[in-house]
Amino acid sequence: MIPTGVMKQSAPAGSRNLILPLVPPAHVHLMGICGTAMAALAGMFHERGFRVTGSDEGIYPPMSDFLGELGIHVIQGYHPSNLDSRPGLVVVGNVIRRSNPEALELERSGIPFITMPAAVTDFFSAGKNRIVVTGTHGKTTVSSMIAWILHCCGLEPSFMIGGIPRNFGTNYRLGNGDFFVIEGDEYDTAYFEKTPKFLHYRPHMGVMTSCEFDHADIYESLDEIKDQFRAFCRLLPADGFLAAYGNDAVGELISGTAARVETYGRDASSDWQADEVREARDGIFAAITKKRIEVARGTLPIMGFHNLMNALAAVAVADKLDVDPQQSMNALASFKGVKRRQQIISEIGGILIMDDFAHHPTAVKATCSAARSRFPDRRLVAVFEPRTNTNRRAVFQKDYVGVFEDADLVVIAEPSNVAHIPENERFSAKLLADDLSALGKKAGAFPHVEDIVEFLSQQLQNGDLVLIMSNGNFGNMSTRLMKALEERPL
Question: What is the distance between the alpha carbons of residues 480 and 490, in angstroms, rounded to a whole number?
Fold first, then answer.
């Protein structure tokens, strides 16, 4: 059967471009392979016996290490010659623009191509019960928690997640069970398919964690984003299920779904809630209630109230799969988290270094708050890189002023690659630092990573917690800082 998502190319007059079934060991090439989802897809094709190659510009850990361990050849940069071997299929990531030289060659070549979500749905999740996790925040953690619960219960789930769950050491798995857990985001699918990725996964069950404005490069307003989430809700079938965070922002989006809905959260009307919440050094204790009746209790090795809410979502989904909530809590007691999500990566000279993916103002605030709650006696040094297409713009310039209240010292990098953004629309690290300083907060802005490393190596002292937040490599900030701290005089 020919996968439904394969794009048939135009062909010269008098010829016909036939698409044949793609079976191992056919060659699949992925453009933008180092994206977390694309790397997972590459791993899945590799595991099924396909020959896999890929190209990208941003080749850095953890995805570069992940692909290297699989033996997948990754080409630095996008070039027409990358297609000289004429792969049987090309998967086009959403980082690729129509003007990309490799994309131009792809369209000229007549090689069949497909989007990442279509490849997942047609080649790997067909016939599975798809659990799609959506929302502005928490998707990776909730997806990882659901996958871990199902794994611990012997249900052998498949999953594809936008980060690397530390329990598994990989962000994908092709299991023998009936369930496929997919992290689905609202960013567009490809330059030739401008709808959100999560609309292509054909969900049977879903989670909606939140809905806030983001992706200012493709959405002009929060209302546009809400329309996409409403469309996702309408995809869920009548015999499906949706776990939705219990607040007004999400509540207004779910009314159109035919699926059964249960809410979770701190709101008194939520179906799933956490009581008796206590945070300690080893995690968060909570008693879990469903419709006011306690169904589970235990200590979860997580940090921050937002992650407790993520756990509630995972327990609610598992409950619909006939997993007892206490069994889910027992599974989550061994949950190790996700790489680059509040991950402590080193302690040097009494200085803790934590890495996190936070970039949206809400996520930055929640991460700082979680770090402060877990380590109340340490000086919290927040180091932030505004790197996404949204926060390199001034969209959240004022919003960031209020998110660092739990930090004692704030260090902000000036955004890079902003030449395409009009100067009056760019985010300014210096302006944010000045605004924070005016509120009495110690803050500084720096143009280059090496400047930040030099500053921190002079300022940091025994007992500090350095929280590094970026959705990218941040110029290898963590490694550079560790090296500088190891080499500085005692």
Answer: 18
| Count helices and strands in the chain by DSSP H and E runs | 13, 23
CB-based contacts of 481-486 (< 8 A; 24+ apart in sequence): 481/353, 481/453, 481/456, 481/457, 482/345, 482/346, 482/348, 482/353, 484/453, 484/454, 484/456, 484/457, 485/348, 485/349, 485/351, 485/457, 485/460, 486/348
Amino acid in position 103:
A
Beta-strand pair 293-300/158-160: unpaired
Check if CATH label 3.40.1190.10 holds for domain 125-332: yes
Q: Which residue has the tokens 């940069």?
A: 77
CB distance 261 to 206 below 8 Å: no
- 3-class state of residue 308 by DSSP: helix
**CATH 3.90.190.20, applies to 343-487:** yes
| Cα separation, 294 vs 274, whole angstroms | 9
> What are the distances in angstroms from CA 102 to CA 56, 72, 98, 105?
10, 19, 9, 5
- Residue 323 falls in which region: left (phi positive, over 0), alpha (psi -120 to 50) or beta: beta
CATH class, range 27-120: alpha beta
351 strand-pairing partners: 348
State the Cα–Cα distance between residues 151 and 167, nearest whole angstrom: 10
- The 10s digit of each residue's pLDDT in 290-320 is 999 999 999 999 989 999 999 999 999 999 9
Is residue 59 over pLDDT 80? Answer: no
> Nearest 5°: phi and psi at 421?
-100, 130
Residues 355-368: tens digit of each pLDDT? 998 889 999 999 99
pTM (2 d.p.): 0.88
Sheet holding 379-384, edge to edge: 343-348, 351-356, 464-469, 379-384, 409-413, 442-446
